[in-house]
Amino acid sequence: MENALRPLIVLGGTVLLTLALGWVVDLVLRRADHRHPETPLWGLLRRCGVPLQVLVMASLLRGTYRETGWRLIESYQSEIGRVLSLVVIGSGAWLVVRVVSVVVESSYARYATSTRDPARVRRVRTQVTLMMRIVIAVVVVVAVAAMLLTFPDLRSIGTSMLASAGIIGIVAGVAAQSTLSNLFAGFQIAFGDMVRIGDTVVVDGEWGVVEEVTLTFLAVRTWDERRITMPVSYFTAQPFENWSRGGVQMTGTVFLQLDHCAPVPLMREKLQEILAECSAWDGRDWSLAVTDTTPTTIEVRAVVTAKDADDIWKVRCAVREEMVAWLAAHHPYALPRIVGEVAAPSRTLAARADAGDGREAGSDREPDTGRG
Q1: Which of 54, 112, 150, 284 supports an S-S bond with 91, CB 3.0-4.6 Å?
Q2: What is the pTM of this model?
Q3: CA pair distance 266, 125, nearest whole angstrom
Q4: Fold (topology level) of 250-334
Q5: How far is CA 97 from CA 94, 136, 142, in A?
Q6: How far is residue 308's CA from residue 101's CA, in Å, rounded to a whole number?
């Protein structure tokens, strides 16, 4: 009777204790979330229930599975213990990653709601994203190393690997030079505030928004929904334009090539009317002036402002489109004209034409045969 109840007590008690602990923890977190609605930490920590229960159950079974008295377990005692140890290590790493991600996410959410500066919010988002990736990488490496150390055969291999760690480190450093440079560049971008998620940048002539930043690459979403993936070392070694740094407000220009008789004062009045009706214009500044002249045209530059890169593009397109339409409808003489002229024939062509006319005229006469 005792041999039949012992496995039931060990396995059933482990399951019941795990479920009870999970229920208690969930209840405490729900009450804490109800008392502190200003922070999402306690509600997010409820995501850690599953890895916590797996860790608790595996740990309890790891310490009590020998007490079941089953012959099958006694025959494969070391193998079962090793499997349970692997489950404990894996679930522990899973729990650590979940807890760290929840803490980081809740901290970022509180900071985003309490800060009105979008540039600082993007900077913190970039930093916490990279830090989260670093923590996950470290936890995974440590967990895999701990799992490998549970196998006796791999311990001797690890000892020999440690003996040659110097040579392996040199070889790995040379082989992973580009990877390490990208890794350190990722740290520099995260904490040097060079570029952030959501920044508007221009790289290699392509305009886009930074969509993702990792330890090795950076993804830029262009205006036509393409994704440009670039190594992070590019942003530490090559110059690039960051339109969001120092404030998101921008100033744009519209150039028009017009005739010399273009009505510039009337164009200033029309530009003011166009901007007054354009919702993307922020009202900070505008101007219109003749900036250059050529023998056939003049260059008119209109300067407009907007609150960000998207709006400045809309304002420039609206000004260009409506100004050209207004000039074509009311002042067509102001548009550039191409003057054409019939080229005069050259002397050689004229001489050939005269010679041809003479031959045609002489062909009508009868040929002189010398006969009377």
Answers
A1: 54
A2: 0.46
A3: 48
A4: Alpha-Beta Plaits (3.30.70)
A5: 5, 6, 12
A6: 31
